[in-house]
Design a protein that fits this description.
single chain, mainly alpha, two-stranded parallel ribbon, 3 helices, globular, nuclease, metal-binding
């Protein structure tokens, strides 16, 4: 079994399976409407992975929509270094959680931030121009999908 550590981005099928990027299987059912109805349950590991993948990605996209509605710094292209961008997103999520937990009676908490955010220019050393699929990452994805599908089958038998 391949051991993958660290974090990765859930991306669409246009990205290759490579370290740091995890996309759905191509040629398998993927969109939520394809899973409606009792007869449309996944029939193999790749379909099951795509179903769970889509649900997770949908939750993430909704969470970012909420954050973008509140903090203007997240609405446009960022020119900060990658680590600063990650810390900014984490800070926004933490602030959102704090507001939700501590300020339960504040009605205007979801008002859109109308302020303009300033961006710091950096060099383009972190830009990604081309990525090629790696066997190790694809194998890890296959093993993950198979493990998820087996667990699901055991829970549903």
């Amino acid at each position: 079994m391949v051991l993958i550590t660290g974090y990765y981005y859930l991306c669409d099928a246009g990205y290759p399976n490579v370290e740091g990027f995890l996309g759905p299987y191509r040629g398998q059912r993927y969109h939520l409407q394809e899973w409606r109805g009792a007869r449309n349950t996944p029939t193999n590991a790749k379909e099951y992975f795509n179903m769970k993948y889509y649900l997770a990605r949908n939750v993430i996209e909704c969470a970012f929509d909420v954050l973008k509605g509140r903090w203007a710094i997240l609405r446009g292209k960022s020119y900060y270094h990658l680590q600063v961008q990650c810390h900014t997103i984490l800070a926004c999520f933490l602030l959102r959680n704090l507001i939700n937990r501590e300020m339960i009676y504040y009605d205007d908490v979801d008002d859109v931030d109308e302020g303009d955010s300033a961006y710091a220019m950096t060099t383009a050393t972190e830009d990604i121009h081309y990525i090629e699929t790696t066997n190790e990452w694809s194998q890890w994805c296959d093993e993950l999908a198979e493990s998820m599908f087996i667990d699901w089958q055991l829970r549903n038998t």
